[in-house]
Amino acid sequence: MAAMQNAFQTVALIGKYMNPEMRAHILALADFLLQRGVLVLVEDKTAVQSDITAYPTVAMDQIGLTADLAVVLGGDGTMLTVARALAQHKIPLVGVNRGRFGFLTDVSSDTMLDAMARILAGEFSTEQRMLLVAAIMRQGQLVSEGQALNDVVINKDGLARLIELEVNIDGQFVHRQRSDGLILATPTGTTAYSLSAGGPILHPTLDAIALVPICPHTLSNRPIAIHGNSKVVVTVIQSQDARVHFDGQHQVSLQPGDQVLVQRAPCSVCLLHPQGHSHYGMLRDKLGWG
């Protein structure tokens, strides 16, 4: 098959680090793509970790400038890292599941080559997934900021004491809560920590943010869903060990009086699925629904 017949001409491969089983899958996919006239690039850290030398390498921050498509082989954690890194480039991402649940990496490694053949033939659908951006303000000064595809989580670190938070949405006071913390989740993130905390599952295309309390002291404090354009300000009223987490991969310590400003990020993540992908079928499979 000639390269010009493919829906994508240059594909970057990114694998889960420190996984000895990953090398064989990356090489199998790289060889498959090469035989179909696709230029294959391997992310440089992936190449080093997997001892891959037969293909040109590319730094993560250059993938969006050099490739038409990025394939992520690993679990949802790997996809979260890659998605945040590449979101500004608007490059579509395909996830091949080599982890556990794989809500984001929904292509099975067993069907990887067949799925890629269909994708190269143009048989795919795309989804735009919301990102959140959060800024931590201390006495009016920016302390830190970060992005999240799944969730921004404000919680206590190790002490058994509850923390007290005040929530304002679009300038309106909502409530104060004493709890173990608060999850602010995108629709994508409602199948992650939010789900474990009793939050609702939102369809990934919904323009909404879920606010889910973690073990609230007042049982009437329930999860709510708000418009995706909302601006949320969470103020730490009382806590000795509060932290804010971005997708569970980056954290910043908080002090009483700190404010966490959370809103939709200006960019989004483009996920690509083989034709026939069903979000409800994925939920049925991953969650064991009958």
From TrEMBL:
Organism placement in taxonomy: Bacteria, Pseudomonadati, Pseudomonadota, Betaproteobacteria, Nitrosomonadales
Family the UniProt entry places it in: Belongs to the NAD kinase family.
Pfam families given in the database record: NAD_kinase, NAD_kinase_C
Enzyme class label: transferase
Keyword vocabulary terms for this entry: ATP-binding, Cytoplasm, Kinase, NAD, NADP, Nucleotide-binding, Transferase
GO-annotated biological processes: NAD+ metabolic process; NADP+ biosynthetic process
Function: Involved in the regulation of the intracellular balance of NAD and NADP, and is a key enzyme in the biosynthesis of NADP. Catalyzes specifically the phosphorylation on 2'-hydroxyl of the adenosine moiety of NAD to yield NADP.
Cofactor requirements of the protein: a divalent metal cation
Name of the coding gene: nadK
Reaction catalysis annotation: NAD(+) + ATP = ADP + NADP(+) + H(+)
Protein name: NAD kinase
Binding site for NAD(+): 76-77, 150-151, 161, 178, 180, 191-196, 249
Record-linked HAMAP family: NAD_kinase
Superkingdom classification of source: Bacteria
Molecular function via GO: ATP binding; metal ion binding; NAD binding; NAD+ kinase activity
Chief location bin: cytoplasm
One Gene Ontology term, aspect cellular component: cytoplasm
Annotated EC: 2.7.1.23
InterPro entries (alphabetical): ATP-NAD_kinase_N, ATP-NAD_kinase_PpnK-typ_C, NAD/diacylglycerol_kinase_sf, NADK
Places the protein is found: Cytoplasm
